[in-house]
Every structure is written in C-alpha cells, then in structure tokens.
Design goal:
The protein is an alpha+beta fold. The chain contains five helices and three strands.
Amino acid sequence: MQLSIKTLMEKGSFTGRPVKKDIKWKQGDAEHTATVFVRPLGYQSTVSDLISGAGKHDGVAGRIAVSICDEDGAPVFTVGDITGEADPERGALDGALTMALLAAIGEVNHMGKTMSSPTPTSSGTKSP
C-alpha cells in the first residue's frame, strides 16, 4: 500500500466522529445516568500520553480530557477540571464518575478485548 490520505481513509486509519455512550455511576445512594460522546483514541490521545510521560500532567486525567467530548468533538473537560486544579473549591471529578468515563473510553476503543484464538482442526493442530 502506498501511504496517502485516500489509502488511509480506505483502511479506516482516521478516528472519525465521536461515539455516543450511556454511562451510569453512583454517588452515595443516588444512581446517575448520562449520555457522553467518546472520541476514539488517536493523535490527541498520543500527544496527551507523551505529555503525561514527561511529567507535565496526570495521564488518566489527560486520557479523559482528550476522549470525552460533545457530539461535535469539542472537549468537555480540561485536565485541571478532572484533577480539581481548575477550581480547587469544586475539587476533583468524582471517583465513580471517573471510572464510568474510563469504562466508556475502553469500550469505544475495544480495550481489554483479546483476539480470538485460532480454531483447532480435527487433527488437533491449530489452523492459521
């Protein structure tokens, strides 16, 4: 394959539109639900990962900040919104909500899914 925008588009190498997900989390005795949009991991997440690796911000907060967006792809949070640094009086994002957002990010990006094993043949050897 010759690398070009056209061939990359044909191979699905661009992240495309955000994916709509419904999430649930508990705060105390109350259960909450919300609809979020998740940007598939791509360039922005790679940059955020590199910045966090250099110690410039929290990696988990960075992943949420670049992944959770509105339906047009605009970020909902900054890293500071998630860590509480943007508004110390408001504080950090709730832990259960953080986990629900990370789960939605994982689902959209198929994290934790394993490839299926090759199917065994009748001779007991695995097919390619």
